[in-house]
Amino acid sequence: MMDDLRELYQEVILDHGRHPRNCRRVDDHSHAAEGDNPMCGDRLSVYLKIDEAGTIQDAAFEGRGCAISIASASIMTEMLPGLSEADARRLFDSFHLLVTGQDINESDADLDKLVVMSGVRNYPVRIKCATLAWHAMTAAMDGQATATTE
Ligand code: ZN
Predict the structure, then answer these.
(1) What is the pLDDT of residues 51-78, one digit of tens each?
(2) Residue 110: CB partners within 8 Å, gap ≥ 6?
């Protein structure tokens, strides 16, 4: 059973890695930042369009990286639209706990989509790949131009 799940998760990651969603520039973005993971060579730009009410209207990314970093960016940009900045930050907090193998709040239903990334918890280098786009997302919201994993 666990092996089936692991295989399924790998399928999801490979699918997002090969066919990333929202892999584009948002020309009318309100926030943007670059994420740099020198350990692996991942380099992504994340674009956010946040309206005056503080709701994320659009999220996208472009750049180069390994399958994990691209898949994580793809899944993240699918989840962000409709969330407030605070919700997006909370989601990253939960995601970070998930990929570092700590207890998470089970009531956070959105985490279902992120559980596929939980396999990286045994690989510290891969945790940086999985969280890169998320670091770039929060850097963008904080008005910083770059986020680095080092
Ligand atoms: Zn990577």
Answers:
(1) 999 999 999 999 999 999 999 999 999 9
(2) 79, 91, 94
Reported as a single tens digit per residue, the pLDDT across 26-54 is 999 999 999 999 999 999 999 999 999 99
CATH code, domain with 102: 3.90.1010.10
Output the CA 86–ligand 1 centroid distance in Å.
Answer: 27
119 domain-assigned: yes
* Residue 106 banded pLDDT, cuts 50, 70, 90: low
Please give the distance, rounded to the nearest whole angstrom, from the Cα atom of residue 99 to the centre of ligand 1.
Answer: 14
Among 65, 63, 61, residue whose Cα is nearest residue 47 = 61
Supply the range of the domain harboring residue 53.
Answer: 2-144
Cα(117) to centroid(ligand 1), Å: 13
How many A from CA of 65 to the centre of ligand 1?
Answer: 6
How far away, in angstroms, is 43 Cα from ligand 1 center?
9
Task: Measure 104 CA to ligand 1 centroid, in angstroms.
Answer: 24
Q: Is residue 150 part of a domain?
A: no
C-alpha–C-alpha distance, residues 27 and 58, integer Å: 11
Q: Is the pLDDT of residue 1 over 60?
A: no
